[in-house]
Amino acid sequence: MSEKPVDDLNGPAPTDFSLSVVMQRSPATSPWQTYLWEAVGVTAAPWESAPQAVSLVHQQGEICHYLYSGFRLQLHADECESYYHNLCSPTPRCFVMARENGEGTPVPFLLSLSFDQANACEEVDETVYAVAMPPELYRWCELFVLNHFVPEKRQKRRLTDWRKETGGSAAL
């Protein structure tokens, strides 16, 4: 599979995308923590790389940028509504889920474009970073949503009169 830009809306869309995560380590100002870690970006990786390869790509003073490569992002039709809301937000995001290793360093393990999946990970105390969505991912997700998402009209639910079913007035 090649990660070429999605320019043709009628052409075949890629089924998945190779990605890498850029994590930044900087000195912490807290006495309880040595370093502050954050995800600062996601980039499309046009190459095949080893799973979970980590490399130092930039260092300036005590601030280091590490590239975590080897991620594959797939979109799922049942998440289309969440992708749609992400694309319509003022700042579309890619969500990086991470777990701490034995030394307290967060290690990315999953990438998603779904608000719902990111929220589910936060609810079970996983670390979730929201980074800007790269343009090639935006176009790919947009094409996927256009091909798979059918919005459902929201309908107001009619209230059921429970007194009629019990054969009298409701006792409080």
Assembly type: single chain
Q: How many distinct beta strands? A: 7
Low-confidence stretches: none
Structural class: alpha+beta
Structure report:
- This protein has 172 residues and is α+β, with helices and mostly antiparallel strands.
- Helix content is 22%, strand content 37%.
- The protein is extended and about 75 Å long.
- It has a four-stranded antiparallel β-sheet, with no helix packed on it.
Break the fold down into its secondary structure elements and pairings.
Layout: E1 16-27, E2 35-44, E3 53-60, E4 63-74, H1 80-88, E5 93-100, E6 106-112, H2 115-123, E7 127-132, H3 135-148, H4 162-166
Can you describe this structure in just a few lines?
With 172 residues, this protein is α+β, with helices and mostly antiparallel strands. 22% of the residues lie in helices and 37% in strands. A hairpin with a 2-residue loop joins strand 3 (53-60) and strand 4 (63-74).
Name some characteristics of this structure:
172 residues, alpha+beta, four-stranded antiparallel β-sheet, 4 helices
